[in-house]
Amino acid sequence: MKFIFLLFFLYVSLYGEQSLDMKDIKSGATKTSMQKWLDYDFGLKPYRTNYILPFARASKPYVSNIPTVVYKDIEAEIQISLQLQVGKNLFGLGEKYFVSYTQQAFWQIYAESAPFRETLYNPEAFVIFPIDDTDNYFRLRSLKFALAHRSNGQPNTKQVVFDNNTSLGNLSRSVNYVYTTLRLQHKTIVLDLTAWVPFPEDPNKSDNIDLMDYTGYTSAKMTYFLDKHMFTLMGRGNLGTQKGAVEVTYSYPLIHNYFYAKIFSGYVESLIDYNNYITKFSVGFSFSR
Question: For the structural domain made of 45-286, what CATH number should be given?
Answer without folding.
Answer: 2.40.230.10
